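anyone seen this seq b4? input:
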Amino acid sequence: KLTSFWSGDNCNTGACTGTGLCEKDFQVNSKGWYTYQGRIVLAGATYACLNSRSGGCAKYNTKYDYIKYYNYYDKVNIKIDGVVYPGIILDSCGACMTNRIIDLFVSNGKYEMYRTKVYLEP
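predicted toks r here
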């Protein structure tokens, strides 16, 4: 599944990602999605979150076989509505740690995305 997040959403998302890169470091494409070096900004299940013992990730220390884990800066291709976009993992997503979800960083709530099927290619 594809979900989205933005600064000030109901998950208390801030302007910065787990990498330390922030909204000011990104561009916004014509769809209202943040991009970094030509790739859409994504959050996913990350090893950083899996290994964290504090903050929002502290409760996600169990590794599941059905979850794909990423390192920050991993590059992926993601097919959304039949179009393949180059993406980059720059943040951790709590829901992604226990569910097969990838999260798209959008510039505000009016660009919120939810798709039941997307395809990731490493």
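Residues 47-50 form the longest helix (4 residues). The beta strands are 2-5, 27-28, 34-36, 39-44, 75-80, 83-92, 102-105, 119-121. kinda curious what u guys think
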